[in-house]
Amino acid sequence: SRWLQTFNPQTLPDDVAVLMIHLINPWGTAWIRRVNEDNIDLNRNFLDFSQAPPDNQAYEALHAIYTCDQLRGPHREQADARLNERVQGEGWPAVMSIVEAGQYRHPDGLFYGGNNASWSNRTLHEILREHLASASVAMCFDLHTGAGDYGHPMLLTIAQAAYPALADARQLFGPWLFTLITGADSQSATGVAATATGYASQAIIDALPRVRLMPFVI
After folding, report:
1. Cα separation, 201 vs 140, whole angstroms
2. How many CB atoms sit inside 10 A of residue 163's CB?
3. HEC-encoded secondary structure of 144-165
């Protein structure tokens, strides 16, 4: 916020611009949720929905546990017991990697990716087409997760594979930059799901193929 207060666009070089997008998930911001008004996790929603979405079969056995209809009572006790059994047998990281990978069958479930492009998805793509398609180089900062230690922001770059400008990003930020390459068998110690699909950062890369883009998440 201090940078915004002191920023003067008149000081920018003629070939440099700053584009700020405010609250691409307004409902989630208003209610302090990572999901939108349809319980869609936007960072699972940036997919090509003309193709079948990923099928997270492993989540099916966990869905009833996480959507138990009781806070207290026998159903809650059964759900807790089933979850504890899974955690003891597989470990908490393994269970969470299944859940955080995202799922596309249960609108009431966790990390639901939706069955079509959300309003936020469509709006972001419209903004990219209108304002960034003609850029030659771009850096995108997604002020989003708050990953990392308390009070210490973690700078991430998230993609499905190494992108053309990744070397530039690493040279600029050195050891401050954490690179997360996602995939079904990927692992991460960043606190951000490596097994997930539908990240906005990958969608921005795909939407701007002619731009030497560096997508960052903070």
Report:
1. 8
2. 20
3. CCCCCCCCCCCEEEEECCCCCC
